[in-house]
Structure formats: structure tokens, C-alpha cells
Predict the 3D structure of the following.
Amino acid sequence: MKNPDSDSHLDSELGAFEDSLRQLVPSPVPAELKQELAEAVEPTENTIPFRSRVLPILVPLAAAAVLAVAVVTGLLRSGNGDGQEIVLPAPDPIENPSLVLSLGVERQLLSVEKLGLVQLQDGHPHNGYRLRYRDTGSWETEPDNLLHISQENEGVLYLPVVFH
Amino acid sequence: MADSATTTPSPDWDRWFAEHGQRLFLFAQTQCRSEADAQDVLQEAVIKTWRSEANETTVPPLPHAYRAIRQCAIDLGRSLDRRTRREEIVSAEWFTEQFTQPTSGEELVPEDVQQALSRLKPDQREVITLKIWGDQTFSEVAETLDLSANTVASRYRTALLELRRQLAPQPQAQPATSPSA
């Protein structure tokens, strides 16, 4: 059987044409894309792949986060010390089905598993987590594909929550 | 926020992408309908391939990266088709330059080659791209495309002939001669 990797099946003229094609150099990868790839393939870095597409989403989220930080910080301060009772406003599933909650640099609200129980996690200052209210009366985190959750963020506190 | 984080990709990544980035990008361009799509496909496929196959001692085999690009492009094409969005084949440049001394005496203009490539049948275009600029043997092309090596070789020759036909100099039009009275 003919070796398919042998180019001997090409006559000299076609072989010469093939050589000419080989002289063409593919265009370089755009620098911005190269940089994004370099960041994305580095698994230990807390970076956001597809950043350019995510930014339009993050900007309004960041604005909401600032508001939520103010609200939640105030709520935390109003807690009962060691009792650490957190009072969260009940979201309106129609008007405002999602909130961005961030508890500042020392704590991040990761998830609320059941009504009355909030799970806090030591957080990264750059991280924020979008929470969505479910009709079942519980909170759930959005898929974390927007923001990378660092493995360093272990350590969980369970705090009672009272919804208004 | 994340912009402030500086990254130091591994030397393996630097070497691997420096060596193969351009040919992977070219293959993505030939598989997509627009420059933006090609960039998205390249990004998704390379990240997926690298994360799943690279480790401290190995880098992903190039055919796997080509295969991932092809699959991502197919998936993207299907989603675009569902939205009935149609675009012309990429308008951006696929090639940058030609070496100053062509070995064959046939001087090819990059833009002409790109046009001719874009007019090839897709299955011919991908074989040509992988074999000529993709640094792939027929066996590796066959692995990427799930074909036999002989089928690839045959398709390659047919595509090469078609490409040469398209790039052949057009014969000069004969001046019209007025009929003698």
C-alpha cells in the first residue's frame, strides 16, 4: 500500500505549487487574545476567562454589590454580637429576583442553604457571589462561572438569618 | 479587579503556544465565518484542551487541539444556524507575508490564496490547512478528522489541484479583431 505520508504521488509541478503554499506564514494570534489565553490557562490565578464578554455583566453587578455591601454591613453591625444574627431583606421575586451580596473583605456570603441559615465563608476581596431567591424560600448561588472561587476560601460559619 | 492580577503562565505553555499558536489560529479561521468567531473558537478550544491534557510533564498533542477547534467551530456553527445568522467567510487576513524567495518560482499573493481557500469545499479546506500549515502528517490529519489516511491523501491531492486551478494566471483576453471587409 502506498504510504499516504509520502508526497511522491504529487508530480513535480504540483509539488512545487505545494512548496509555494508552504511559504505563506499564518497571521499571528492577536496580542489581546494571546494575553487572555495565557491568563485563562493558568489554573492557580484568580482570573476571569472571557473577560471581555463578562465585563458588561460585571459592571452593573459591581454597582449592585456596592449597594449590597452597604446594606449588609449595616445589617451585620445591627446583629447581636456573638449571636451573629443577620437580618436580610426578603427579596421580591418579581421586582428584584436577585441580589448581589458581599460582606466586605473579611467575609463573603457564599450561599444560603435554607431559610434561617446562612453560610458565610472567608472570602477573597475580589470575589462576590450572586445569589438568587427561589420560590421554595431558600437562596442559591448562581453558577460560579462568572467568578472563580478560590480553593483557599475554606472555613464556614453558620449564622441564623431572619428575613423581614 | 481581575485585571490587576498578574499571571505567569508556565514555560510549557509559552513554548507550546509560541510554536503552535499561529497554525491553530489559522485553522480556527478556516473553520469559522468571522474573525470574532475564530477568536472565540480558538480560545474555548485551547483552554479546554490545555486544562484537560496539560500537566507538569506533558503538553497536549497538536491533533487534539485541532480536533477541539473543529468541534467548537461545529458547535458554534450550529448555534449560529439556529439563529439563521449568516456571514461571509472571514474577511481578516489569514496570512502575513511570503518569504522573499519562493522556492518554486510560483509567486503567490496571500490574499489570493485566502480567497481561493475560502472557495474550496470545507472538507478540502481543512485537509489543506492541516497538512500545509498545520504541521500535520496525513496520519495525524486522519486522526483529527476521523478519516482514513488514504482518504485524507486523496482529498488533499484533489484540493491541491483545485487550489492550483483557482490560482492559475488568467489567460489574457484576445483583442477582438474586426472582420475584414
The longest strand of chain A covers residues 156-163. The longest helix of chain A spans residues 51-77. The two ends of chain A are 80 Å apart (CA to CA).
